[in-house]
Each structure stands twice: as C-alpha cells, then as structure tokens.
Write a structure and sequence with these properties.
The chain is α+β, with helices and mostly antiparallel strands. It has two domains: 4-153, 3-Layer(aba) Sandwich (Rossmann fold); 156-298, Hnrnp arginine n-methyltransferase1 (Distorted Sandwich), CATH 2.70.160.11. It is 26% helix and 36% strand. It has helices spanning 4-9, 14-17, 20-27, 30-43, 59-65, 78-88, 130-145, 282-288, 295-298, and strands at residues 49-53, 70-75, 97-101, 115-118, 151-153, 156-166, 169-170, 173-174, 179-181, 190-192, 197-203, 211-219, 224-240, 245-250, 253-264, 269-277, 290-293. Strands 6, 9, 10, 11, 13, 14 and 15 form a seven-stranded antiparallel beta sheet that branches. A five-stranded parallel beta sheet has the order 3-2-1-4-5, with helices on both faces. Residues 1-13 have low confidence and may be disordered.
C-alpha cells in the first residue's frame, strides 16, 4: 500500500548525492544530448535571457549560450558547481554563463528571462523533483515579475505503462528486481502482453499536480504471466507549432516487478492500478501497483 511516509522518508534530491561520473556519463548519452541540443537551438533566440535550474556540468547552459545573451546556471552541489565552471571555461561560449551556487528551489534571476531549462528528470518522473521545481519556480517568478511566464524546456511529459512477462532468472538466481531498459534496444527477457497505455500527461505550462493515480484495463494479446509493469517517459522538450511537430526525449524504460504475478491467456482483461507522487521513491510506486484479472477471465 502506498503511504505518505515513503515520500517523506526520501527527502534528498537525486542530483545532490550521485557521484560526479554519473553526470559525465550523461554527456555521453547521445539520445539525451542530441534532443536537448535540438530543442535549445529551436527555442533560444539571439540575445535571449536563459535560466537553467539544476545545471549539473553546465552543458545545457553552454548550448543555450551559443545564441543567448546571458545564461544563469543554478546548481546546489558544490562539486558540480566547480565542475561546471571548469568545463564552461573550456568552451567558446562559456563566458556567457554565470554559474550560481544556490538552491534552485529558492533562486530567482535578477531580471525576467525568456527560457527556463530544467532537467531534473527520472523515469516515471520519480526520484528527482522536476514537477515540484517548476511549480515552485512559477509561483516565485509571478510574484516578482508578473504573470507572463518564460518558455520551459521541457514543456510537457507523457507517461505510459505496459504489462510484461519479465524474465527474472539471473544465472539460476531468481530475483524480481527494478530494471532500466535502453530505448530502442532489444529486450529478449521481456514479453509484451499488451500495447502500452498513456496514464498521465503533465503540461508544465499549466498548474501541475504531483499526485498521479491511474486505473486501466488491458486486453492481453497473448498467453503469459503478468509479473511486471514497464513505464515509458516521453519528454516534450519543445513544440514547433508552425510545423505541427515536437522535439522529444524518451528516457530509459523502467520495469518494476508486481508483488503478485497474474497468469492469464490471450483475450483476458487485466486490470492495473497504481498511485504515487512525482519526485517520490521508486518503491512508493512499486508498492502501490496492483494487477488482477477481470471477473469473466477469472471464471474461465
């Protein structure tokens, strides 16, 4: 059962406690880098004022500085502040980025900005505080600068879920564990029992609740044992209204084991439910997950 205690128990922010080499690995993630670069190049115009909340190594601020007139890069972790300043000094536009050692939940720029970049994103919007950060920022920003908000990168998040039969055999050791799967890679241990369904669309330009609760029904496409749920997280980094298109970033899939696997046949209806808060622990989502067969299926 999901409890508020699980959220309260995990007070830290992921970015403050992961080792520096994790941020270095993010630079090598071509899926992440190419899509953010495209979105920033689309959204940041010549001379724009840009704010990045939770800047890490400063890479996204540096990409924005290629066209922006001024960039403020806010980071709380002192080790990352030093690393961002070191790396920005090696890049042609780094001098246009001011690295601010401050809590992004409290900082406001000295003047209105045109674009806000915030990449505090985890699969299923867990662990990191993206939604809470943007909501807190919007409140503070309006109080100081008025109702007109800057453009946000990302601007929205679409999340979906899918039932799986997941192989949890590791060299003869049975271990139902949390797994992350690379996008577009082959996953031979995962049997897809039904197509994914969207369970949440978060529009960061509007008031956004951190509470997520979903219940839905899947018609299974093949026989199997539903013993896991796979979560998809698609970030809409920028919207190109003129061409009716978007610049997206799909992050690693998250696969969580069900506490009670369900054996089923093709055509059966599988009812799935869960609830959690964005920014909370993976365990809080995992503990809330339920899957049961429909009444007609259970009687077969």
């Amino acid at each position: 059962m999901y409890t508020l205690h699980e959220d309260v128990a995990e007070k830290h922010y992921l970015g403050q406690f992961i080792p520096l080499h994790y941020h270095h690995n993010m630079l090598m993630d071509k899926n992440r880098m190419d899509n953010f670069k495209a979105a920033i190049e689309f959204a940041v115009f010549d001379g724009a004022k840009v704010l990045e909340l939770g800047g890490g190594t400063g890479v996204l601020s540096c990409l924005a500085a290629a066209r922006a007139g001024q960039v403020w890069c806010v980071e709380l972790n002192p080790e990352l502040v030093a690393e961002a300043r070191r790396l920005l000094a090696l890049n042609a536009n780094g001098h246009k980025v001011e690295v601010i050692h401050a809590d992004a939940f409290e900082y406001l720029p000295p003047e209105p900005v045109d674009v806000v970049i915030c990449e505090m994103i985890h699969s299923a919007m867990l662990r990191e505080k993206q939604v809470e950060m943007i909501e807190a920022f919007k409140t503070r920003y309006r109080q100081r600068f008025g109702d007109k908000l800057p453009l946000f990168i990302p601007t929205a998040i679409i999340m979906a879920v899918q039932p799986l039969q997941q192989d949890y055999n590791f060299s003869g050791f049975h271990a139902p564990i949390v797994q992350f799967q690379r996008v577009h890679a082959e996953h031979p241990g995962s049997v897809e029992l039904a197509a994914p369904q969207t369970y949440s669309i978060l529009d960061l330009t509007r008031p956004t609740s951190s509470a997520i609760e979903w219940e839905g029904t899947f018609t299974l496409q093949q026989d199997g044992t539903a013993n896991a749920l796979r979560f998809f997280t698609k970030n809409i980094l920028a919207v190109d209204a003129r061409h009716a298109g978007t610049i997206d970033w799909v992050i690693d899939y998250l696969v969580l084991p069900l506490n009670q696997p369900v054996a089923a046949r093709a055509g059966d209806e599988l009812h799935v439910s869960f609830r959690y808060r964005t920014g909370s622990s993976i365990r809080s989502l995992e503990n809330s997950m339920r899957a049961t067969l429909g009444a007609s299926s259970a009687q077969q």
